Amino acid sequence: DRYATRELSRLGRAAGQVALIAAVAGAATFALFPRFGVGVFLRGNLYGNESVGFSDSVQLGGFGTIKNDATVVMHLVPLDAPAGSDVETTRLTWHLRGSAFDSYQNGRWGRSNDAVHEDLARKRGYYLVRENGEIPGEVVAAPYRFAGQTGESVVAVPVPGFAASTETTRMLVTMEDIGTDLLFAAGRPLAYSLSPRGAIESRNILGADVDDQVRILDRQPGPIQYEFVGRTGEPSRGELAAVGEPPVPPYLGPYLQLDGDFSPELHALAQEITAGAETRIDKVEAVQAYLLDNYQYSLDQPLSPRVQSGEIDPVEGFLFDTKAGHCEYFASAMVILLREVGVPTRNVNGFYGAHYNEIGEFYVVRQADAHSWVEVHFDDLGWITFDPTPPAGRTAGDDAPWFPALANIGDALRDAYLEYVIDYDLGDQLEMLENIGVERRGRGLKIDWRQLGPWIGGGVALLLLVAA
After folding, report:
1. What's the CA gap between 452 and 438, in Å, rounded?
2. 373 touches 329 (CB < 8 A)
3. pLDDT for 302-345, tens place per residue?
4. How far is CA 57 from CA 101, 111, 454, in A?
5. Which of 17, 105, 211, 306 would be 259's cystine partner, CB 3.0–4.6 Å?
6. What's the Cα-to-Cα distance from 425 to each of 33, 36, 169, 343, rounded to whole Å?
7. Which residues contact 314 (CB under 8 A, 6 or more apart)?
8. pTM for the complete prediction?
9. What are the two backbone dihedrals, phi and then psi, of residue 202, each rounded to the nearest 5 degrees?
């Protein structure tokens, strides 16, 4: 019995030593064996199946079903922002633009022309977006305010009559595979920069649709990472009023179309709301104020009997019968009412805001942040964002139960797993070697033994401890 006990003890120590040696060898192999962006083959959706659908057409009512869904959609890390902005505020209040629509009929938004009309111009690592036919951004070497270093960035070209047109933000986005090839950005996107996961994704290019949607062409499955630079400055009320009520050029015709079979009552309401309005901004503010003052936000408001019977359109049911609904109804009603009085307007879908994770030091966007709003065209100032949804309906996630520390810890761990395990590549390995004293010089290596020595000593000590 004593002999058997001694043998079991000896076998246990030997097994422990083998396990420890295997763990050390495995860690060393992972850290040092060359890796060439294999994350593209390994990454899956860590948060489940496809999240939010941003398809070519949207039926009213979809966003109302996900306002209590805690599924993570993306992480945002501020890299550069307007001077004086607080990058660690509890919640960002930006509209993250994704898809846009010009055609509406019987409760469904779609597009008159779905074709990708151009590949984006690429310059020094950035894909530059066109605005009113011009490229509104210029690539320069500039300091990154929150990274403490200098590198390539994009500055906005000033727009005459728009003092805040040069205010921009730059963010790093890690987006889950949510079933769309769209990229999301705050404000008016100026430029994008992709972070490819290996040789396959390094060949990806970006294209822009007719509604200023930006897509990854031939996107690979799994999460993606990219940077965006967006114009987040907004024109003043006076600058918008100075535009007046300009004639609508032919190319904006789709944003005036009213394909639905609307009643004379709807046209009369639009005329009544905007009576006395002299400029485009007067009309926009009148409609927005009317919706905010006279309608209630609700996620579970049923369709009115007249809508269910097909007698009237769902937007008319919202305006005249229920007078309650979620963001899609507020945005759709504003678009239709403004088009009734000759204002070029379109419906936009994306996400509103993001909640700050203090543990991971990034912002989290969830399905519950999905939102719908409006863009109105103001001549040379371009498309300007307006949101008719009551403020309480835009930020449904603020007091939701998934924001306590436990959820933040889980998000931070998943983010670290993606960054330090799945996306660990040759560049990270070279950086690690430089940190311990091994630096590549031309075709050879330069070794700083004073820096590398303690690491070697520690490794030898660990091996002796294991062998003891």
Report:
1. 7
2. no
3. 889 999 998 999 999 999 999 999 999 999 999 999 999 999 99
4. 8, 7, 61
5. 105
6. 10, 6, 28, 51
7. 60, 106, 107, 303, 307, 329, 332
8. 0.76
9. -65, -15
